[in-house]
Design goal:
The chain is mainly α. It contains five helices and no strands.
Length: 169
Protein backbone atom coordinates (compact mmCIF):
# COMPACT_ATOMS: atom_id res chain seq x y z
CA UNK A 1 0.00 0.00 0.00
CA UNK A 2 1.37 3.41 -0.97
CA UNK A 3 2.30 5.64 1.91
CA UNK A 4 0.55 9.01 2.00
CA UNK A 5 2.87 11.93 2.58
CA UNK A 6 1.95 14.72 4.98
CA UNK A 7 1.77 17.18 2.05
CA UNK A 8 -0.72 14.95 0.20
CA UNK A 9 -2.77 14.44 3.38
CA UNK A 10 -2.89 18.19 4.08
CA UNK A 11 -3.70 19.08 0.48
CA UNK A 12 -6.60 16.61 0.30
CA UNK A 13 -8.27 17.42 3.65
CA UNK A 14 -7.95 21.19 3.95
CA UNK A 15 -10.68 23.10 2.17
CA UNK A 16 -9.64 26.37 0.51
CA UNK A 17 -10.76 29.47 2.43
CA UNK A 18 -12.49 30.93 -0.61
CA UNK A 19 -14.56 27.72 -1.04
CA UNK A 20 -15.42 27.61 2.68
CA UNK A 21 -16.52 31.25 2.69
CA UNK A 22 -18.56 30.69 -0.49
CA UNK A 23 -20.49 27.82 1.10
CA UNK A 24 -21.10 29.71 4.33
CA UNK A 25 -22.28 32.88 2.55
CA UNK A 26 -24.59 30.87 0.30
CA UNK A 27 -26.03 29.09 3.33
CA UNK A 28 -26.61 32.42 5.07
CA UNK A 29 -28.27 33.87 1.97
CA UNK A 30 -30.49 30.81 1.52
CA UNK A 31 -31.56 30.85 5.18
CA UNK A 32 -32.34 34.56 4.98
CA UNK A 33 -34.44 34.06 1.87
CA UNK A 34 -36.30 31.18 3.55
CA UNK A 35 -36.95 33.33 6.63
CA UNK A 36 -38.09 36.32 4.60
CA UNK A 37 -40.19 34.46 2.06
CA UNK A 38 -41.70 31.78 4.28
CA UNK A 39 -41.98 33.40 7.74
CA UNK A 40 -42.45 37.05 6.67
CA UNK A 41 -44.50 36.73 3.50
CA UNK A 42 -46.24 33.35 3.31
CA UNK A 43 -46.92 32.60 7.00
CA UNK A 44 -46.94 36.31 7.96
CA UNK A 45 -45.71 35.45 11.44
CA UNK A 46 -43.53 38.52 11.66
CA UNK A 47 -41.84 41.31 9.75
CA UNK A 48 -38.49 42.91 10.52
CA UNK A 49 -40.03 45.54 12.80
CA UNK A 50 -43.06 43.65 14.16
CA UNK A 51 -42.22 44.18 17.83
CA UNK A 52 -41.31 47.87 17.60
CA UNK A 53 -43.87 49.16 15.12
CA UNK A 54 -47.26 47.43 15.00
CA UNK A 55 -49.06 47.63 11.66
CA UNK A 56 -52.06 49.84 12.33
CA UNK A 57 -52.21 51.89 9.12
CA UNK A 58 -50.87 52.02 5.56
CA UNK A 59 -47.80 54.01 6.60
CA UNK A 60 -46.82 51.20 8.97
CA UNK A 61 -47.38 48.62 6.23
CA UNK A 62 -45.05 50.60 3.95
CA UNK A 63 -42.38 50.86 6.66
CA UNK A 64 -42.55 47.09 7.22
CA UNK A 65 -42.37 46.44 3.47
CA UNK A 66 -39.24 48.59 3.17
CA UNK A 67 -37.62 46.94 6.21
CA UNK A 68 -38.39 43.47 4.83
CA UNK A 69 -37.08 44.59 1.43
CA UNK A 70 -33.79 45.73 2.98
CA UNK A 71 -33.58 42.34 4.72
CA UNK A 72 -34.05 40.61 1.34
CA UNK A 73 -31.46 42.91 -0.25
CA UNK A 74 -28.94 41.81 2.39
CA UNK A 75 -29.79 38.15 1.68
CA UNK A 76 -29.32 38.85 -2.02
CA UNK A 77 -25.92 40.40 -1.30
CA UNK A 78 -24.83 37.36 0.72
CA UNK A 79 -25.95 35.05 -2.09
CA UNK A 80 -24.19 37.06 -4.82
CA UNK A 81 -20.98 37.15 -2.78
CA UNK A 82 -21.22 33.38 -2.22
CA UNK A 83 -21.73 32.69 -5.93
CA UNK A 84 -18.84 34.99 -6.87
CA UNK A 85 -16.48 33.27 -4.42
CA UNK A 86 -17.64 29.85 -5.56
CA UNK A 87 -16.96 30.82 -9.17
CA UNK A 88 -13.48 32.13 -8.29
CA UNK A 89 -12.81 28.91 -6.40
CA UNK A 90 -13.90 26.96 -9.48
CA UNK A 91 -11.63 29.02 -11.75
CA UNK A 92 -8.71 28.39 -9.39
CA UNK A 93 -9.51 24.64 -9.51
CA UNK A 94 -9.99 24.60 -5.72
CA UNK A 95 -13.28 22.68 -5.59
CA UNK A 96 -13.19 19.32 -3.84
CA UNK A 97 -14.39 16.39 -5.93
CA UNK A 98 -17.33 15.81 -3.60
CA UNK A 99 -20.63 17.52 -2.86
CA UNK A 100 -20.54 16.59 0.83
CA UNK A 101 -18.34 19.43 2.12
CA UNK A 102 -20.28 21.98 0.04
CA UNK A 103 -23.63 20.83 1.48
CA UNK A 104 -22.05 20.85 4.94
CA UNK A 105 -20.84 24.43 4.51
CA UNK A 106 -24.26 25.56 3.25
CA UNK A 107 -25.93 23.96 6.31
CA UNK A 108 -23.30 25.55 8.56
CA UNK A 109 -23.94 28.97 6.99
CA UNK A 110 -27.72 28.58 7.31
CA UNK A 111 -27.28 27.67 10.96
CA UNK A 112 -25.01 30.66 11.55
CA UNK A 113 -27.59 32.93 9.97
CA UNK A 114 -30.45 31.58 12.11
CA UNK A 115 -28.39 31.69 15.28
CA UNK A 116 -26.98 35.18 14.74
CA UNK A 117 -30.27 36.64 13.48
CA UNK A 118 -32.12 34.99 16.36
CA UNK A 119 -29.74 36.30 19.02
CA UNK A 120 -29.41 39.81 17.55
CA UNK A 121 -32.89 40.57 16.17
CA UNK A 122 -35.06 38.45 18.46
CA UNK A 123 -33.26 38.66 21.78
CA UNK A 124 -30.85 41.63 21.91
CA UNK A 125 -32.68 44.20 19.75
CA UNK A 126 -36.14 42.68 20.21
CA UNK A 127 -37.31 44.08 16.86
CA UNK A 128 -39.34 40.96 16.12
CA UNK A 129 -39.90 37.40 17.29
CA UNK A 130 -40.41 34.25 15.24
CA UNK A 131 -44.08 34.11 16.16
CA UNK A 132 -45.61 36.74 18.44
CA UNK A 133 -48.01 35.87 21.21
CA UNK A 134 -47.95 34.39 24.68
CA UNK A 135 -45.39 31.72 23.77
CA UNK A 136 -43.06 33.86 21.64
CA UNK A 137 -40.01 32.76 23.64
CA UNK A 138 -40.62 29.09 22.82
CA UNK A 139 -40.69 29.95 19.11
CA UNK A 140 -37.50 32.01 19.47
CA UNK A 141 -35.73 29.19 21.33
CA UNK A 142 -36.86 26.62 18.74
CA UNK A 143 -35.46 28.90 16.00
CA UNK A 144 -32.13 29.14 17.85
CA UNK A 145 -32.12 25.39 18.48
CA UNK A 146 -32.74 24.73 14.79
CA UNK A 147 -29.86 27.07 13.91
CA UNK A 148 -27.50 25.29 16.29
CA UNK A 149 -28.62 21.90 14.91
CA UNK A 150 -27.83 23.11 11.38
CA UNK A 151 -24.37 24.27 12.48
CA UNK A 152 -23.62 20.89 14.08
CA UNK A 153 -24.98 18.94 11.10
CA UNK A 154 -23.01 21.05 8.63
CA UNK A 155 -19.83 20.68 10.66
CA UNK A 156 -20.32 16.89 10.80
CA UNK A 157 -20.76 16.73 7.02
CA UNK A 158 -17.43 18.53 6.53
CA UNK A 159 -15.65 16.45 9.17
CA UNK A 160 -17.01 13.19 7.73
CA UNK A 161 -15.64 14.21 4.33
CA UNK A 162 -12.25 15.11 5.85
CA UNK A 163 -12.08 11.76 7.68
CA UNK A 164 -12.94 9.89 4.49
CA UNK A 165 -10.16 11.76 2.66
CA UNK A 166 -7.64 10.89 5.37
CA UNK A 167 -8.49 7.20 5.24
CA UNK A 168 -8.07 6.97 1.46
CA UNK A 169 -4.96 5.09 0.33
Amino acid sequence: MAEMTQATLTRSTILPKRFVLAGILLGMGFAGFFDGIFLHQIMQWHHMLSSVRPMTNMTDVKVHSVADGLFHAADYGLTIAGVALLWRSHLADELPKSTQPFIGLILLGAGLFNTLEGIIDHEILGIHHVHSGTHFMLWDLAFLGFGIALIITGYKFVERWKNAQESMP
